[in-house]
Amino acid sequence: MYKSELDNHIRNKSISNSFVFFGESSFLIDMYTKMLTTIDDANILEFYYDEYDFNSAKSHLSQASLFGDRNILIIKSEKKVPKKELDILLAFCDKNPDNIFVYAYYGSDHKSYNNKKTFAKSKAMSVRFFNPKDYEAQNIILQLAQEKGANIDKYTVAHLLSVHNGDVALAANELDKFVLYDRAITTKDIDNLVYGLGEVNLDDFIKKLLHKKDFKEDLKRILEHGEDEIRVVTAITAYLTQLYMFNIYIRVNGAPNALEILGYPAPKFVVDEKSQLSIKFKPEIYAKLHELLLDSELKMKSSNIDKGAILLSTLIRLQKLLK
After folding, report:
1. Total domain count for the chain?
2. Which of 31, 201, 230, 320 gives the lowest tally of CB atoms within 10 Å of its CB?
3. Global pTM?
């Protein structure tokens, strides 16, 4: 099923007590996992990624609840739980309606979970979450803002999402800043308070730089927005380091794994983009680029010189090194 169907079940109080969440939106997977497992006095066991242990999970769901509390099991993983083990865990929930089990799968192989027959023998609700459309993203942020007590209207929310290139997770993280204000948040507040504006522009700028496109106007706007020249250099260095990690991992293993490279699951389009860009450059090029950037950073920090001139010169030299 899809998010809209799950929402109907929640409204009608006809939801199951076991769920398999998967799809393109890690944010929605997280949001609904939290929504359905936040229960007072519940006995919760949560496994993150490689922590999953079948025997512990099975024992948790099979044990009697203490003092009438509910047993809740949450598994968050980019790797698939073996089907036989998953069926057993779901069966425990079928037998005991007080149990709650959420399997949040962050991997990209959705085929088997997208098949209605996969969990036909259980009461589990298998839900695929797509990245929310613009109006859905706005409604989500408005709802979260209301829950947190942030005074913000839909037009300002739209601007906030635009600042973060439509990333709902990043936009949601900004809401805590706005709760501190006892007035309505404006689009001007977004520009002043949301550091992500610089980050998003900087990220796009770095990609343009590495594709050997003209970057001067972009650089001018970034600096005018208040970015520091040293910050620009360190951001490029960090980005290249990440690309180099992708490059090495792909060369050794043949395919990327965001969890092992970055330490967290990333959207498929991000992984694909960074993988393709990372393999464009040979290891010796990465070494030269890092040497150039670190040397420039040191120069900027060492004396009262024109950091803007050093930055521009560095970026021109950087593009010349790219092959």
Report:
1. 3
2. 320
3. 0.59
